[in-house]
């Protein structure tokens, strides 16, 4: 597949892309060039700040706008500024980001700026009722905004099954229904959840919820929602099986019906993406560890064009044939 690496002067990951004012803006995590031990909790992802990237178009020069937000400026956060996203409303820009709070639990915060590239001023506290990681923001045609979020393992989704944090809680296993990503509507001021947090359920073609043991298809982390030809597309990482897959629905809240694989495994453990339309073409933004030669916490964001078939399915992209089925 043909792809383009977007930054080589720093390591970047988890790219959330949007078009604002006719320009492409990418909101990635900023991986640090440090050597740390890996863990299932993701302790190696010790990010401290965000840089926003932008470009006139898919082939144009990429600008790094510098530090848009630093953990030291976020009163409620202690460490690990993981995958962010941003959106615009009435000329203001809202950066949504997960980080560990002072009690070591992941929460989701919001910071506000006057320009898409920031700088962003964080709210004093995290979004009330937020938990886990990987916020993605979707604006529907009626002007409502929704945030999808959640991640297993280091993302702590297993710990919130009762609605409160339970430190030793474990996730479902085998034939039990898989844990779901979450979705909440945003309030008019974009700063809080409007009402409750709901499951984004993914079902198979017979309408049966995917099971926890179905690691090829069940949700792990990195949600993204977009709309194509009137259908909602929910895409995400399968984590342990390292694919980006997708499901479709007629309602933003789901249930979504599983469809297939968008991106087969990349070099490195994590895989994380976003999908955006720009001037009539559709692009996948993702990351891999090719430049660091496989160091999980030194990732690089890339983009590649995606193609829809006439029936609305998405053609699978294969970055590296040799990685399929290897892990
Ligand atoms: O970048 C840290 C974490 O790695 C993200 O939050 C996950 O989606 C995974 O990419």
Architecture overview:
- The chain has no helices and 22 strands.
- With 327 residues, it is mainly β.
- The protein has a single domain (4-306), classed as 5 Propeller (Tachylectin-2, Chain A).
- The relative contact order is 0.15.
- The structure holds beta-L-arabinofuranose (FUB).
- Residues 13-14, 29, 42, 45, 82-83, 133-134, 151, 221-222, 270, 272 line the site of beta-L-arabinofuranose.
Please specify the SSE layout and strand pairing.
Elements: E1 4-5, E2 11-20, E3 23-31, E4 49-55, E5 63-70, E6 77-79, E7 85-89, E8 92-101, E9 106-113, E10 121-122, E11 136-139, E12 145-149, E13 181-185, E14 198-200, E15 202-203, E16 221-228, E17 231-237, E18 244-249, E19 256-263, E20 273-278, E21 281-288, E22 300-306
Parallel strand pairs: 15-19
Antiparallel strand pairs: 1-22, 2-3, 3-4, 4-5, 6-8, 7-8, 8-9, 9-10, 11-12, 12-13, 13-14, 16-17, 17-18, 18-19, 20-21, 21-22
The structure holds beta-L-arabinofuranose.
Ligands, ions, cofactors? beta-L-arabinofuranose
CATH class: Mainly Beta
Total DSSP E strands: 22
- Separation of the first and last Cα atoms: 21 Å
Radius of gyration: 18 Å
Look at the helices and sheets and give the structural class: mainly beta
CATH H-tier superfamily: Glycosyl hydrolase domain, family 43
Q: What is the helix tally?
A: 0
Largest sheet: 5 strands, antiparallel
Q: If you average the pLDDT, what whole number results?
A: 97
Oligomer category: single chain
């Amino acid at each position: 597949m043909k792809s383009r690496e977007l930054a080589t002067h720093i390591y970047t990951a988890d790219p959330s892309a949007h078009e604002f004012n006719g320009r492409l803006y990418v909101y990635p995590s900023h991986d640090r060039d440090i050597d740390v031990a890996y863990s299932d909790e993701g302790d190696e992802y010790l990010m401290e700040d965000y840089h926003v990237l932008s470009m006139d178009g898919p082939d144009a020069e990429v600008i790094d706008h510098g530090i848009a937000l630093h953990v030291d400026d976020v009163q409620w956060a202690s460490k690990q500024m993981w995958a962010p996203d941003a959106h615009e409303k009435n000329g203001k820009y809202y950066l949504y980001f997960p980080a560990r709070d002072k009690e070591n639990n992941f929460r989701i915060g919001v910071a506000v700026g006057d320009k898409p590239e920031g700088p962003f001023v964080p709210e004093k506290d995290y979004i009330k009722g937020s938990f886990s990681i990987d916020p993605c923001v979707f604006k529907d045609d009626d002007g409502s905004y929704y945030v999808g979020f959640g991640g297993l393992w280091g993302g702590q989704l297993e710990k919130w099954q009762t609605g409160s944090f339970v430190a030793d809680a474990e996730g479902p296993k085998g034939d039990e229904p898989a844990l779901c990503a979450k979705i909440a509507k945003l309030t008019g001021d974009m700063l809080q959840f409007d009402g409750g947090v709901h499951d984004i359920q993914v079902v198979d073609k017979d309408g049966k919820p995917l099971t926890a043991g179905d690691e090829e298809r069940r949700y792990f982390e990195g949600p993204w929602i977009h709309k194509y030809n009137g259908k909602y597309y929910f895409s995400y990482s399968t984590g342990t099986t390292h694919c980006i897959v997708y499901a479709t629905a007629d309602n933003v809240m789901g249930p979504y019906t599983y469809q297939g694989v968008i991106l087969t495994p990349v070099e490195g453990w994590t895989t994380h993406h976003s999908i955006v339309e720009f001037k009539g073409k559709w692009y996948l933004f993702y990351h891999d560890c090719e430049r660091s030669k496989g160091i999980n916490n030194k990732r690089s964001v890339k983009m590649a064009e995606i193609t829809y078939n006439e029936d609305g399915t998405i053609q699978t992209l294969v970055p590296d044939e040799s990685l399929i089925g290897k892990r």
